[in-house]
Amino acid sequence: MRYKLLGKTGLRVSELCLGTMTFGEEWGWGASKEESRKIFDAYVDAGGNFVDTANLYTGGTSEKFVGEFLKGRRERFVLATKYTLNMRPDDPNGGGNHRKSLVQSLDASLKRLGTDYIDLYWVHAWDGMTPLEETMRALDDVVRAGKVLYVGISDAPAWIVSRANTLAELKNWTPFAALQIQYNLADRTPERDLLPMAKALDIAVTPWGVLAGGVLAGKYKTPKDRPAGARYSKDEAWAETVVTEGSVRIAEAAIRAAKEAGRTASQVALAWVRQQPFGVIVPILGAKTVAQLQDNLGCLDFTLGPSQLEKLDAASKVDLGFPHDFLARARPYVFGKTFPLIDDHRA
Asked: Is 57 a known active-site residue?
Protein backbone atom coordinates (compact mmCIF):
# COMPACT_ATOMS: atom_id res chain seq x y z
CA MET A 1 0.00 0.00 0.00
CA ARG A 2 1.25 3.45 -0.92
CA TYR A 3 -0.11 6.77 0.38
CA LYS A 4 -1.54 9.93 -1.14
CA LEU A 5 -1.98 13.48 0.08
CA LEU A 6 -5.59 14.38 0.84
CA GLY A 7 -6.21 17.26 -1.55
CA LYS A 8 -4.47 20.50 -0.52
CA THR A 9 -3.64 19.14 2.94
CA GLY A 10 -0.51 17.39 4.16
CA LEU A 11 -2.54 14.44 5.48
CA ARG A 12 -1.32 11.06 4.19
CA VAL A 13 -4.02 8.52 3.39
CA SER A 14 -3.61 5.03 1.97
CA GLU A 15 -4.34 4.61 -1.73
CA LEU A 16 -7.42 2.54 -0.93
CA CYS A 17 -10.00 3.49 1.70
CA LEU A 18 -11.92 0.94 3.75
CA GLY A 19 -15.65 1.61 3.64
CA THR A 20 -17.56 0.17 6.58
CA MET A 21 -21.20 0.42 5.56
CA THR A 22 -21.12 -3.39 5.57
CA PHE A 23 -20.15 -3.55 9.24
CA GLY A 24 -23.23 -4.87 11.04
CA GLU A 25 -26.18 -7.04 10.06
CA GLU A 26 -29.05 -4.67 10.93
CA TRP A 27 -29.87 -3.96 7.29
CA GLY A 28 -30.03 -7.62 6.32
CA TRP A 29 -26.95 -7.88 4.11
CA GLY A 30 -23.90 -6.83 6.12
CA ALA A 31 -21.10 -8.63 7.96
CA SER A 32 -21.12 -9.96 11.50
CA LYS A 33 -18.86 -8.38 14.10
CA GLU A 34 -16.41 -11.25 13.78
CA GLU A 35 -16.25 -10.99 9.99
CA SER A 36 -16.06 -7.18 10.17
CA ARG A 37 -13.02 -7.44 12.43
CA LYS A 38 -11.36 -9.84 9.99
CA ILE A 39 -12.01 -7.41 7.13
CA PHE A 40 -10.62 -4.53 9.17
CA ASP A 41 -7.49 -6.44 10.22
CA ALA A 42 -6.82 -7.65 6.66
CA TYR A 43 -7.01 -4.06 5.42
CA VAL A 44 -4.63 -2.89 8.16
CA ASP A 45 -2.22 -5.75 7.44
CA ALA A 46 -2.08 -4.56 3.82
CA GLY A 47 -0.97 -1.13 5.03
CA GLY A 48 -4.32 0.66 5.01
CA ASN A 49 -4.86 3.61 7.35
CA PHE A 50 -7.98 5.34 5.94
CA VAL A 51 -11.34 4.16 7.36
CA ASP A 52 -14.72 5.59 6.34
CA THR A 53 -18.04 5.25 8.16
CA ALA A 54 -21.17 7.35 8.84
CA ASN A 55 -23.65 7.97 11.63
CA LEU A 56 -26.52 6.11 9.91
CA TYR A 57 -24.59 3.06 8.69
CA THR A 58 -26.34 0.00 10.13
CA GLY A 59 -28.11 2.27 12.60
CA GLY A 60 -24.87 3.31 14.33
CA THR A 61 -23.42 -0.19 14.62
CA SER A 62 -20.76 0.51 12.00
CA GLU A 63 -19.36 3.38 14.06
CA LYS A 64 -19.43 1.27 17.22
CA PHE A 65 -17.54 -1.58 15.54
CA VAL A 66 -14.97 0.79 14.04
CA GLY A 67 -14.44 2.43 17.43
CA GLU A 68 -13.80 -0.95 19.04
CA PHE A 69 -11.42 -2.03 16.27
CA LEU A 70 -9.44 1.22 16.61
CA LYS A 71 -9.11 0.96 20.37
CA GLY A 72 -5.49 1.21 21.45
CA ARG A 73 -4.27 2.28 18.00
CA ARG A 74 -6.47 5.26 17.17
CA GLU A 75 -3.59 7.68 16.49
CA ARG A 76 -2.25 5.89 13.41
CA PHE A 77 -5.56 5.91 11.53
CA VAL A 78 -7.30 8.55 9.45
CA LEU A 79 -10.88 8.17 10.67
CA ALA A 80 -13.69 9.58 8.56
CA THR A 81 -17.38 9.72 9.41
CA LYS A 82 -20.40 11.70 8.20
CA TYR A 83 -23.44 13.66 9.24
CA THR A 84 -26.62 14.72 7.36
CA LEU A 85 -28.63 11.48 7.30
CA ASN A 86 -31.50 11.38 9.77
CA MET A 87 -31.25 9.09 12.81
CA ARG A 88 -34.74 10.17 13.98
CA PRO A 89 -37.06 10.02 10.94
CA ASP A 90 -39.97 11.77 12.69
CA ASP A 91 -37.80 14.76 13.70
CA PRO A 92 -37.46 17.47 10.99
CA ASN A 93 -34.16 18.53 12.60
CA GLY A 94 -32.89 14.98 13.00
CA GLY A 95 -30.93 15.27 9.76
CA GLY A 96 -29.74 17.81 7.22
CA ASN A 97 -26.77 20.12 6.76
CA HIS A 98 -27.70 22.74 9.35
CA ARG A 99 -25.77 23.58 12.52
CA LYS A 100 -28.09 21.76 14.95
CA SER A 101 -27.85 18.54 12.94
CA LEU A 102 -24.07 18.86 12.71
CA VAL A 103 -23.50 19.47 16.43
CA GLN A 104 -25.84 16.70 17.58
CA SER A 105 -24.59 14.20 15.00
CA LEU A 106 -20.92 14.89 15.71
CA ASP A 107 -21.28 14.46 19.47
CA ALA A 108 -23.20 11.19 18.97
CA SER A 109 -20.59 9.88 16.50
CA LEU A 110 -17.72 10.74 18.84
CA LYS A 111 -19.44 8.76 21.58
CA ARG A 112 -20.10 5.72 19.38
CA LEU A 113 -16.56 5.78 18.00
CA GLY A 114 -15.00 6.22 21.44
CA THR A 115 -12.77 9.09 20.35
CA ASP A 116 -12.51 12.81 21.01
CA TYR A 117 -11.85 13.91 17.42
CA ILE A 118 -12.61 12.99 13.80
CA ASP A 119 -9.87 13.25 11.19
CA LEU A 120 -12.22 13.83 8.24
CA TYR A 121 -15.84 14.87 8.75
CA TRP A 122 -18.12 14.60 5.73
CA VAL A 123 -21.30 16.40 4.78
CA HIS A 124 -23.02 13.20 3.65
CA ALA A 125 -25.52 14.63 1.16
CA TRP A 126 -26.56 18.13 0.14
CA ASP A 127 -30.03 18.88 1.58
CA GLY A 128 -30.92 21.76 -0.75
CA MET A 129 -32.32 23.86 2.12
CA THR A 130 -29.52 24.92 4.44
CA PRO A 131 -27.66 28.09 3.41
CA LEU A 132 -24.15 27.20 2.35
CA GLU A 133 -22.73 29.90 4.63
CA GLU A 134 -24.32 28.22 7.66
CA THR A 135 -22.85 24.83 6.82
CA MET A 136 -19.35 26.10 6.11
CA ARG A 137 -19.23 28.27 9.22
CA ALA A 138 -20.53 25.45 11.42
CA LEU A 139 -17.91 23.08 10.00
CA ASP A 140 -15.19 25.67 10.60
CA ASP A 141 -16.35 26.03 14.20
CA VAL A 142 -15.93 22.32 14.97
CA VAL A 143 -12.49 22.39 13.34
CA ARG A 144 -11.46 25.35 15.50
CA ALA A 145 -12.86 23.51 18.54
CA GLY A 146 -10.52 20.59 17.83
CA LYS A 147 -13.30 18.05 17.34
CA VAL A 148 -12.61 17.76 13.59
CA LEU A 149 -9.32 18.11 11.69
CA TYR A 150 -10.48 18.22 8.04
CA VAL A 151 -13.83 18.42 6.25
CA GLY A 152 -15.22 16.87 3.08
CA ILE A 153 -18.46 16.73 1.14
CA SER A 154 -20.29 13.80 -0.40
CA ASP A 155 -23.08 13.54 -2.97
CA ALA A 156 -23.42 17.21 -3.93
CA PRO A 157 -23.48 19.20 -7.19
CA ALA A 158 -20.22 20.64 -8.46
CA TRP A 159 -21.47 24.22 -8.17
CA ILE A 160 -22.19 23.72 -4.47
CA VAL A 161 -18.70 22.39 -3.78
CA SER A 162 -16.89 25.06 -5.79
CA ARG A 163 -18.94 27.86 -4.22
CA ALA A 164 -18.32 26.40 -0.75
CA ASN A 165 -14.56 26.42 -1.19
CA THR A 166 -14.64 29.92 -2.64
CA LEU A 167 -16.54 31.09 0.45
CA ALA A 168 -14.06 29.32 2.70
CA GLU A 169 -11.13 30.95 0.93
CA LEU A 170 -12.64 34.44 1.13
CA LYS A 171 -13.73 34.15 4.77
CA ASN A 172 -10.73 32.15 6.06
CA TRP A 173 -12.92 29.15 6.90
CA THR A 174 -11.92 25.51 6.53
CA PRO A 175 -12.39 24.36 2.90
CA PHE A 176 -13.44 20.93 1.71
CA ALA A 177 -10.34 18.78 1.28
CA ALA A 178 -12.16 15.80 -0.20
CA LEU A 179 -15.14 14.89 -2.34
CA GLN A 180 -17.02 11.59 -2.12
CA ILE A 181 -19.03 10.57 -5.19
CA GLN A 182 -20.43 7.54 -6.96
CA TYR A 183 -18.06 6.78 -9.83
CA ASN A 184 -17.37 3.60 -11.75
CA LEU A 185 -17.11 2.16 -15.24
CA ALA A 186 -20.89 1.89 -15.42
CA ASP A 187 -21.54 5.48 -14.30
CA ARG A 188 -19.06 8.01 -15.65
CA THR A 189 -21.35 11.05 -15.42
CA PRO A 190 -19.11 12.72 -12.76
CA GLU A 191 -16.64 13.27 -15.61
CA ARG A 192 -18.89 16.09 -16.82
CA ASP A 193 -18.29 18.50 -13.93
CA LEU A 194 -17.50 16.93 -10.54
CA LEU A 195 -14.18 15.32 -11.43
CA PRO A 196 -12.75 18.21 -13.50
CA MET A 197 -13.73 20.54 -10.67
CA ALA A 198 -11.98 18.36 -8.09
CA LYS A 199 -8.81 18.26 -10.19
CA ALA A 200 -8.84 22.03 -10.76
CA LEU A 201 -9.37 22.81 -7.05
CA ASP A 202 -7.03 20.04 -5.82
CA ILE A 203 -9.79 18.24 -3.93
CA ALA A 204 -9.16 14.54 -3.31
CA VAL A 205 -11.85 12.19 -4.64
CA THR A 206 -12.98 9.06 -2.78
CA PRO A 207 -15.36 7.22 -5.13
CA TRP A 208 -17.97 4.89 -3.68
CA GLY A 209 -19.87 2.21 -5.59
CA VAL A 210 -16.76 1.44 -7.64
CA LEU A 211 -18.11 -2.03 -8.44
CA ALA A 212 -21.63 -0.69 -9.14
CA GLY A 213 -23.17 -2.80 -6.40
CA GLY A 214 -21.52 -5.97 -7.69
CA VAL A 215 -22.48 -5.52 -11.34
CA LEU A 216 -18.89 -4.90 -12.43
CA ALA A 217 -17.78 -7.96 -10.48
CA GLY A 218 -19.99 -10.07 -12.78
CA LYS A 219 -22.57 -10.71 -10.06
CA TYR A 220 -25.60 -9.97 -12.25
CA LYS A 221 -25.98 -11.30 -15.77
CA THR A 222 -29.24 -9.55 -16.73
CA PRO A 223 -31.31 -6.63 -15.37
CA LYS A 224 -33.73 -9.24 -13.98
CA ASP A 225 -31.09 -10.33 -11.46
CA ARG A 226 -31.62 -7.24 -9.28
CA PRO A 227 -31.41 -7.65 -5.50
CA ALA A 228 -34.53 -6.71 -3.56
CA GLY A 229 -35.91 -6.50 -0.06
CA ALA A 230 -33.03 -5.06 1.97
CA ARG A 231 -32.62 -1.56 3.26
CA TYR A 232 -30.72 1.53 2.07
CA SER A 233 -28.13 0.77 -0.62
CA LYS A 234 -29.69 -2.56 -1.57
CA ASP A 235 -33.27 -1.46 -2.02
CA GLU A 236 -35.13 -2.09 -5.27
CA ALA A 237 -35.19 1.54 -6.40
CA TRP A 238 -31.41 1.73 -6.08
CA ALA A 239 -30.99 -1.60 -7.86
CA GLU A 240 -32.99 -0.37 -10.84
CA THR A 241 -30.46 2.42 -11.36
CA VAL A 242 -27.47 0.07 -11.13
CA VAL A 243 -28.41 -3.24 -12.76
CA THR A 244 -29.35 -2.18 -16.27
CA GLU A 245 -28.73 -3.50 -19.76
CA GLY A 246 -26.02 -0.88 -20.16
CA SER A 247 -24.20 -1.69 -16.91
CA VAL A 248 -24.35 -5.44 -17.61
CA ARG A 249 -22.87 -4.83 -21.07
CA ILE A 250 -20.06 -2.77 -19.55
CA ALA A 251 -19.48 -5.53 -16.99
CA GLU A 252 -18.98 -7.96 -19.86
CA ALA A 253 -16.21 -5.71 -21.20
CA ALA A 254 -14.60 -5.71 -17.74
CA ILE A 255 -14.79 -9.51 -17.63
CA ARG A 256 -13.08 -9.73 -21.03
CA ALA A 257 -10.33 -7.38 -19.84
CA ALA A 258 -9.94 -9.46 -16.67
CA LYS A 259 -9.43 -12.67 -18.64
CA GLU A 260 -6.85 -10.92 -20.80
CA ALA A 261 -4.98 -9.63 -17.74
CA GLY A 262 -5.32 -12.79 -15.68
CA ARG A 263 -7.26 -10.86 -13.04
CA THR A 264 -10.78 -10.71 -11.65
CA ALA A 265 -13.42 -8.34 -13.00
CA SER A 266 -13.52 -6.56 -9.62
CA GLN A 267 -9.78 -5.89 -9.79
CA VAL A 268 -10.12 -4.52 -13.32
CA ALA A 269 -12.96 -2.19 -12.31
CA LEU A 270 -10.94 -0.87 -9.37
CA ALA A 271 -7.76 -0.50 -11.41
CA TRP A 272 -9.69 1.48 -14.03
CA VAL A 273 -10.93 3.97 -11.42
CA ARG A 274 -7.44 4.31 -9.93
CA GLN A 275 -5.97 5.14 -13.34
CA GLN A 276 -8.36 7.94 -14.27
CA PRO A 277 -6.64 11.34 -14.79
CA PHE A 278 -8.54 13.47 -12.30
CA GLY A 279 -5.99 14.21 -9.59
CA VAL A 280 -5.99 12.25 -6.33
CA ILE A 281 -8.46 9.35 -6.49
CA VAL A 282 -8.77 6.97 -3.53
CA PRO A 283 -11.43 4.29 -4.16
CA ILE A 284 -13.54 3.10 -1.25
CA LEU A 285 -13.64 -0.67 -0.79
CA GLY A 286 -16.90 -2.10 0.54
CA ALA A 287 -16.57 -5.79 1.37
CA LYS A 288 -18.92 -8.17 3.18
CA THR A 289 -16.29 -10.89 3.57
CA VAL A 290 -12.54 -10.95 4.07
CA ALA A 291 -12.27 -12.94 0.80
CA GLN A 292 -13.92 -10.06 -1.09
CA LEU A 293 -11.52 -7.58 0.49
CA GLN A 294 -8.48 -9.68 -0.38
CA ASP A 295 -9.67 -9.89 -3.97
CA ASN A 296 -10.18 -6.13 -4.12
CA LEU A 297 -6.71 -5.47 -2.73
CA GLY A 298 -5.35 -7.31 -5.75
CA CYS A 299 -6.00 -4.17 -7.81
CA LEU A 300 -2.79 -2.74 -6.31
CA ASP A 301 -0.62 -5.33 -8.04
CA PHE A 302 -1.12 -4.31 -11.68
CA THR A 303 -2.10 -1.56 -14.08
CA LEU A 304 -4.25 -1.74 -17.16
CA GLY A 305 -2.41 -1.27 -20.45
CA PRO A 306 -3.31 1.33 -23.11
CA SER A 307 -5.18 -1.22 -25.23
CA GLN A 308 -7.25 -2.43 -22.27
CA LEU A 309 -8.06 1.13 -21.21
CA GLU A 310 -9.09 2.00 -24.75
CA LYS A 311 -11.49 -0.96 -24.94
CA LEU A 312 -13.02 -0.19 -21.55
CA ASP A 313 -13.38 3.47 -22.51
CA ALA A 314 -15.16 2.55 -25.74
CA ALA A 315 -17.59 0.32 -23.83
CA SER A 316 -18.39 2.84 -21.10
CA LYS A 317 -17.85 6.34 -22.44
CA VAL A 318 -20.53 8.86 -21.49
CA ASP A 319 -21.69 11.87 -23.49
CA LEU A 320 -20.53 15.01 -21.73
CA GLY A 321 -23.46 17.06 -23.05
CA PHE A 322 -23.77 20.83 -23.09
CA PRO A 323 -21.69 22.95 -22.76
CA HIS A 324 -18.77 20.52 -22.98
CA ASP A 325 -19.56 18.99 -26.36
CA PHE A 326 -20.42 22.42 -27.79
CA LEU A 327 -17.15 23.94 -26.54
CA ALA A 328 -15.16 21.13 -28.12
CA ARG A 329 -16.80 21.89 -31.46
CA ALA A 330 -16.18 25.62 -30.97
CA ARG A 331 -12.40 25.27 -30.58
CA PRO A 332 -11.60 26.22 -34.19
CA TYR A 333 -13.50 29.48 -33.70
CA VAL A 334 -11.76 30.22 -30.39
CA PHE A 335 -8.19 29.17 -31.21
CA GLY A 336 -8.12 29.23 -34.98
CA LYS A 337 -5.54 26.72 -36.17
CA THR A 338 -3.37 27.01 -33.04
CA PHE A 339 -5.09 24.67 -30.57
CA PRO A 340 -2.83 21.64 -31.33
CA LEU A 341 0.24 23.88 -30.85
CA ILE A 342 -0.59 24.97 -27.28
CA ASP A 343 0.76 22.92 -24.37
CA ASP A 344 -1.90 23.28 -21.66
CA HIS A 345 -0.52 21.92 -18.38
CA ARG A 346 -3.95 22.38 -16.78
CA ALA A 347 -5.77 20.15 -19.25
From this structure: yes
